[in-house]
């Protein structure tokens, strides 16, 4: 016993824990040691993405392979057994288990969440495999014969990753599969699964079908499955990439035109099933023909009570129907939960980011002056095409709908291209989706981006493309190229709504929101295009550029974690923060400042058209009446002065979940500290021309444009290095004039050490520094006035005894200039 006191955790496990499990009947293959639950949250830094510590359970107990039913947390012999209880509870909650155990080899504590009264109690021995399996099945309400068979059925391991390793089922996907199969065993006919975009809903669907096919769920034959959606790519990708490799071409079929029979897995578009000269295609299949229907993106058309697509589901009412979505909707006319029932399992965006399976994000909110102030028309003013514009103030709710300001689109395009250039990795721009109001807006944005990115387009003709429902096969071809991780073009895909759901786009690094989004479901689907990780290109995070305040829709505590915590910093006229205040309701669903006035509701007929305005918002407001009378007409104006009113940047707070608004000063400070640029290191690198260029590029890659800081901070008389030192390390600001005076006072002997002609060059270099900053401290400056009046570059260089001596003299000048603190 004395020797046991000194055991390590590993020794305790080998000597006491494993023997105790074996004694209870657990075979070695049923005990999974060091079970890795997740990958650990990724933290984005300018240089790389750093994974956090993964959750690793000491042991997971499996009755059959890949079906965890219990978790064990082991501590060393001398540690109190209760010190492992919280860990065991956390692991069990993640794995969807009701049975967890903490042990130190001497004692065993069982945490049991099954039944009406959860308990924590000390027990004498671990339950055996059969005992725990029966308790697990009872907890899942799947202790019938078919329930036992479904939950014990093996997972399929046919699919491979790009490196030919087995595509493993993640822990939450197992929980989703088990929860669904338990519901099926309980004869639940409508089942809802909610999994965030990018978390593998198709893999879950595949494994459910595979397990059903390996059981006797349908007596005497394999079950017939119909996989439904409303977009071709949402049907073709699952069919081609998942189900065909597993089930083969003989058993997989896409319905189109005629009612083919004799297959096991059918795929179909609602639109295809509705076709038919005399009778709709779906009615040519008996209601009992399909045993299981999987509805992908079920929050879309089929959720509406009056949807014609709902008729397809109701025709096949005898089948078990599984709805898959990342964004269930709940409103009067379309309620996903009302049709499918409460979700049997939910895995949120916040869960995915926390586990390291989804990419964390940064947010930039950019507003233009016309969005903040509005655009006032004059009496009798005509638009670009000669239409008289109703006189009033037009605001964000009107832009791209009834009022088009061409310069607003051009300003956004300029911002996007500047951003892509500043964040380019080794000259390669991050792939970007720009979401516009409609197809017409997308065309104008495509044109504006094309014109601004003239240097990029010259090299890559398809640098920017429009991909909408109106672009047909050409758009689909562009999408295929855009999705490739090894493709250099297109870089920018401009769309309206076509790319906002159900498309796997892991290469996307930037999501640009330039369409007003008032639906939480649409917002989540839209930003979901960026949440997927892409290790092949080193993508571990993504950025959201928001021109329309759409990111206020992050406020969904039940799904995405706590609401955005927006802290508004108040600065004085020199940019110094003097006060901070947390905004009330900062994460509201919509921009309340622009939602006060009622507006007609337009039903989309396509990307670029409007139907007759709905009259459910009948009001007497003359502005609204004008808009209704215009019947969706857009007025196009130009010659408007549009400029960036302001830019806000958001970063993850220390809790790793909420977003915090930061000033540019805070942003620069955090980046400099992240880059580990101590004051001495900053000074020494900045002083030397060559290393200064490297440092400028290094900071630029971290989204810090150092040479623009004097203008951005409102301190044009201060050199960028002093602003960096002040913001990051709190060192006092020193103007360039003051640095020059100190240099002349302290380093006069340095100048006197040079012969007169060389001294004249250095003195002029000092004046250049005082006037324009440290960017002038380089040999190339000798090629501009007044140096050109003093002689040629070769002549001036000869005064120092050669090029190397000139470089050394200018670098030494820079070092001495920056010595003062």
UniProtKB/TrEMBL annotation:
SMART domains: DEXDc. Transmembrane segments: none annotated. Residues 182-346 form the Helicase ATP-binding domain. Residues 415-570 form the Helicase C-terminal domain. InterPro entries: EcoEI_R_C_dom (IPR013670), Helicase/UvrB_N (IPR006935), Helicase_ATP-bd (IPR014001), Helicase_C-like (IPR001650), Helicase_Restrict-Modif_Enz (IPR050742), P-loop_NTPase (IPR027417). CDD domains: DEXHc_RE_I_III_res, SF2_C_EcoAI-like. GO terms for molecular function: helicase activity. Gene3D superfamilies: 3.90.1570.30, P-loop containing nucleotide triphosphate hydrolases. Pfam families: EcoEI_R_C (PF08463), Helicase_C (PF00271), ResIII (PF04851). Keywords: ATP-binding, Helicase, Hydrolase, Nucleotide-binding. PANTHER family: ATP-DEPENDENT HELICASE IRC3-RELATED, TYPE I RESTRICTION ENZYME ECOKI R PROTEIN. This is DEAD/DEAH box helicase family protein. It comes from Nocardia callitridis. The lineage of its organism: Bacteria, Bacillati, Actinomycetota, Actinomycetes, Mycobacteriales.
């Amino acid at each position: 016993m004395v020797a046991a006191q000194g055991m390590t955790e590993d020794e305790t496990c080998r000597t006491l824990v494993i023997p105790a499990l074996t004694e209870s009947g657990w075979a070695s293959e049923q005990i999974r040691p060091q079970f890795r639950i997740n990958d650990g949250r990724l933290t984005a830094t300018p240089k790389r993405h750093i994974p956090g510590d993964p959750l690793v359970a000491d042991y997971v107990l499996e009755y059959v392979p890949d079906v965890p039913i219990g978790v064990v947390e082991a501590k060393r012999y001398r540690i109190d057994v209760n010190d492992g209880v919280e860990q065991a509870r956390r692991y069990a909650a993640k794995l969807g288990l009701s049975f967890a155990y903490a042990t130190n080899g001497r004692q065993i504590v069982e945490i049991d969440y099954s039944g009406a009264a959860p308990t924590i109690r000390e027990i004498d021995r671990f339950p055996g495999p059969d005992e725990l399996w029966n308790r697990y099945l009872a907890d899942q309400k799947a202790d019938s014969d078919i329930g036992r068979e479904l939950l014990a059925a093996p997972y399929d391991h046919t699919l491979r990753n790009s490196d030919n390793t087995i595509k493993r089922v993640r822990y939450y996907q197992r929980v989703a599969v088990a929860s669904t199969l338990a519901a099926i065993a309980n004869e639940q006919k409508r089942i809802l699964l909610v999994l965030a975009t990018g978390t593998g809903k198709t893999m879950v669907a595949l494994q459910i079908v595979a397990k059903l096919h390996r059981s006797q769920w349908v007596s005497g034959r394999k079950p017939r499955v119909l996989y439904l959606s409303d977009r071709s790519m949402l049907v073709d990708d699952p069919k081609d990439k998942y189900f065909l490799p597993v089930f083969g071409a003989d058993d997989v079929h896409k319905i189109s035109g005629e009612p083919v029979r004799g297959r096991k897995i059918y795929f179909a578009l609602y639109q295809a099933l509705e076709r038919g000269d005399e009778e709709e295609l779906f009615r040519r299949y008996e209601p009992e023909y399909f045993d299981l229907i999987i509805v992908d993106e079920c929050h879309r058309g089929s959720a509406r009570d009056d949807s014609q697509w709902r008729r397809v589901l109701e025709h096949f009412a005898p089948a078990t129907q599984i709805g898959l979505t990342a964004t269930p909707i709940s409103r009067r006319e379309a309620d996903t939960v009302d049709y499918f029932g409460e979700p049997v399992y939910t895995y949120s965006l916040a869960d995915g980011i926390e586990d390291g399976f989804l990419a964390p994000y940064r947010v930039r909110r950019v507003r233009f002056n016309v969005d903040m102030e509005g655009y006032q028309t004059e009496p009798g003013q005509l638009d670009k095409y000669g239409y008289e514009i109703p006189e009033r103030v037009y605001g964000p709710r009107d832009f791209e709908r009834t009022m088009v300001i061409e310069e607003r689109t051009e300003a956004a395009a300029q911002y996007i291209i500047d951003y892509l250039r500043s964040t380019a990795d080794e000259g390669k721009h991050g792939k970007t989706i720009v979401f516009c109001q409609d197809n017409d807006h997308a065309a104008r944005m495509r044109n504006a981006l094309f014109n601004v990115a003239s240097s990029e387009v010259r090299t890559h003709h398809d640098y920017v493309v429009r991909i909408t429902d109106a672009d047909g096969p050409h758009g689909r071809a562009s999408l295929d190229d855009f999705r490739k991780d090894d493709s250099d073009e297109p870089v920018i895909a401009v769309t309206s709504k076509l790319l906002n759901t159900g498309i796997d786009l892991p290469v996307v690094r930037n999501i640009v929101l330039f369409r007003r989004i008032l639906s939480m479901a649409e917002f989540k689907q839209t930003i979901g295009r960026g949440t997927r990780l892409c290790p092949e290109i080193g993508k571990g995070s993504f950025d959201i550029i928001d021109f329309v305040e759409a990111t206020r829709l992050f406020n969904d505590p039940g799904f995405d974690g706590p609401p955005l915590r927006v802290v508004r910093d108040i600065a004085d006229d020199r940019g110094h923060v003097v006060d901070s205040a947390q905004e009330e309701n900062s994460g509201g669903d919509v921009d309340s400042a622009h939602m006060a006035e009622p507006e007609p509701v337009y039903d989309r007929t396509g990307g670029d058209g409007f139907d007759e305005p709905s009259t459910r918002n009948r009001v007497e407001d003359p502005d609204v009446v004008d808009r209704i009378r215009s019947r969706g007409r857009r007025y196009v104006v130009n010659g408007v002065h549009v400029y960036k009113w302001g830019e806000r940047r958001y970063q993850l707070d220390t809790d790793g979940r909420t977003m915090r608004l930061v000033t540019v000063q805070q942003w620069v400070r955090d980046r400099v500290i992240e880059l580990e640029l101590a004051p001495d290191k900053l000074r020494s690198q900045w002083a030397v021309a060559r290393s200064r260029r490297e440092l400028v590029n290094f900071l630029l890659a971290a989204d810090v444009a150092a040479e623009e800081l004097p203008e951005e901070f409102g301190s044009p008389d201060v050199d960028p290095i002093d602003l960096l030192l002040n913001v990051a390390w709190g060192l006092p600001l020193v103007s360039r004039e003051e640095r020059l005076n100190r240099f002349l006072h302290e380093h006069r002997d340095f100048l006197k050490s040079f012969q007169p002609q060389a001294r004249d060059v250095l003195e002029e270099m000092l004046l250049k520094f005082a006037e324009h900053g440290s960017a002038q401290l380089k040999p190339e400056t000798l090629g501009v006035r007044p140096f050109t009046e003093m002689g040629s570059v070769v002549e001036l260089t000869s005064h120092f005894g050669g090029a190397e001596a000139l470089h050394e003299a200018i670098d030494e000048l820079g070092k001495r200039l920056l010595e003062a603190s």
